[in-house]
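Slide 14.
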Amino acid sequence: MKKLLLPAFILLFCFNVQAQQEDEDGERNKETGFLKDENLGKNELSINALTLIAVGALDISYERNINEDSSWSTEFWVQFNEEIADEFYRDIAITGKYKHFFSSNYARGFYVHAFGMISNGDYGEELYYVGDQLVEQEEMKFTDFALGFGIGGKLISSGGFKADFSGGIGRNLFNSNSPTIVGQIMVNLGYRF
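Slide 15: predicted structure.
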């Protein structure tokens, strides 16, 4: 039951974000009909504050808005905290995402995304025995590619500050030494320019 609380919270938050974004009554661009926040720019840089604090990993993102309904992003993850690294399998990961927004505002509000992730790290242990005696214990390294999807919500202030909350789940496809399921929970804070 506890495992369902976080996804339920993210889903409710995203719907709340969508409702707030649609209720805003700002000045609209006469050509596109969208709020003038599209003039803030099409590029966004952000950092995942949640993984930085909770996991000790640097997770930075660059996002480019394609149009008012969609964007693509690239994320780079590096694990720094050795104590937590034993509990967390990914050491390095590069993720590409495509986001589709369901808001009447320019590239913000509730969205769904698809992602592809290349990651490597240590997962499981390989044991070597001679007779009944354990001779060597070695961590198994992996490099794998995962495909997945998720949901989220993005808020953009009039000054360009960005808060993006999302969660996603995917599956590694090629290596039997890698974890089968990969997950992402993100609280990205950044700036649109």
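Speaker note: The radius of gyration is 20 Å.
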